[in-house]
Design a protein that fits this description.
It contains three helices and 17 strands. It has 264 residues and is of the alpha+beta class. The chain has two domains: 101 residues, Immunoglobulin-like; 111 residues, Sandwich (Immunoglobulin-like), CATH 2.60.40.10.
């Protein structure tokens, strides 16, 4: 093509260098336009996302048992990371997740439990569109009853003389017993131990009996404690929350490896 341009230009008595230069410039412009991706420039996003609004609102009471759940973030999110990190205590089966911009919406598959404080948590694995993680796990509570429970149970979980970071810690008002397969499937309240092993279980309702606690490292990510394969500990009848606002602290849960294993 370039040689033909040179030949035609020579016949016409025209200098070929400008013609070839224009041709090369055109190719460069076409190549530049063909590039795809996010435009460069601007400062790198390092600000963690935050939750700016929820429905029901934090602390709301008398919530309709058919109420949908919405969570609005301060910026576009990595949607799958948010969906994976969302937990509800007590456990509530949710329908499909629907997103509109920065807002997540979902609905319970059946009626919310009656006269119950429900705690929704977005875990620390939730990230924004640029991969920046939320600063820390965020929880909010609402109630289908006349008021929101305010009891707290706090302590630290350890394993092998070090913090059991990321361990799941549950509180159950009934006796904690593994089923015939050696699995503890759920409890009414829960929290995740931080990097220092500390945990705080909030919005615990009053109960005439002491709460039992279970802490474990969920190795397979199924949200259940397999006592035959996972590191953990069950402590029965440990924390008494018999008046609104009661707080029980200083609990130490020492996790043990599963039988015949070295845990974690």
């Amino acid at each position: 093509m370039v040689r033909r341009l040179r030949r035609d230009a020579a016949r016409a008595g025209v200098d070929t260098l400008p013609v070839v230069g224009l041709f090369v410039l055109a190719l460069a412009l076409i190549a530049g336009c063909a590039k795809t991706g996010m435009p460069g420039g601007g400062p790198e996003d390092t600000d963690p996302p935050v939750i700016v609004a929820t429905t029901p609102g934090s602390g709301a009471a008398g919530v309709d048992r058919e109420s949908a759940l919405t969570i609005e973030f301060s910026e576009e999110m990595d949607r799958s990371s948010v969906e994976r990190s969302l937990t509800i205590d007590p456990d509530v089966a949710l329908g499909r997740f629907e997103w509109t911009g920065t807002t997540l919406r979902t609905s319970p598959r059946s009626l919310l439990p009656d006269s119950t404080t429900i705690v929704v948590t977005i875990g620390g694995d939730a990230r924004d569109y640029h991969g920046v993680a939320i600063a820390e796990a965020v929880s909010f509570a609402f109630s289908t009853g006349p008021d929101v429970a305010t009891g707290t149970i706090a302590g630290v979980a350890t394993f092998d003389d070090r913090a059991a970071s990321g361990a799941l810690v549950w509180a159950c008002p009934e006796a904690i017993v593994a089923d015939s397969a050696g699995i503890v499937r759920s409890c009414e309240y829960g929290a995740v131990a931080g990097e220092d092993g500390a945990f705080v279980i909030r919005n615990v309702r009053t109960h005439p009996r002491r709460y039992g606690l279970v802490a474990f490292v969920d190795r397979d990510g199924d949200g259940m404690f397999d006592t035959s394969r996972e590191t953990g500990w069950i402590a029965s009848l440990l924390a008494l929350i018999d008046s609104p606002g009661d707080s029980v602290g200083g609990i130490e849960l020492v996790l043990l490896p599963p039988p015949g294993g070295d845990g974690e």
